[in-house]
Specification:
By secondary structure, this protein is mostly helical. It contains two helices and no strands. It has one domain. Keywords: Membrane, Transmembrane, Transmembrane helix.
């Protein structure tokens, strides 16, 4: 009986250690997703800002049509950005709650 109990205790501790390792890996994964999300946002904002600046200097001198087209383009971009933010946040939260 003593041998069986010791064996069970060792098994229990092994299972606990395995669970801890899995949690740790999930934590790293969620942190990684979070950093990817922040980097993506930073680059996306920089790109849109540069895009607006470049086009406003080159095309928008005396052209209202070009201005309207660019505003539409930027609006579409921001819709895509909102969708991607939602996907990233959803992924990040799902990983956090699964811990």
């Amino acid at each position: 009986l003593l041998r069986k109990r010791v064996h069970l205790i060792v098994l229990d501790s092994g299972l606990k250690q395995k669970k801890k390792k899995i949690k740790y890996k999930k934590g790293i994964c969620s942190i990684m997703w979070f950093f990817i999300f922040i980097i993506y946002l930073f680059f996306f904002e920089c790109f849109t800002f540069l895009f607006i600046v470049c086009f406003s200097r080159s095309m928008l001198v005396h052209n209202d049509y070009a201005f309207n087209e660019i505003i539409l383009f930027i609006n579409n971009y921001y819709i895509v950005e909102e969708m991607l933010i939602f996907i990233f946040v959803n992924r990040f939260c799902r990983l956090e709650t699964s811990q």
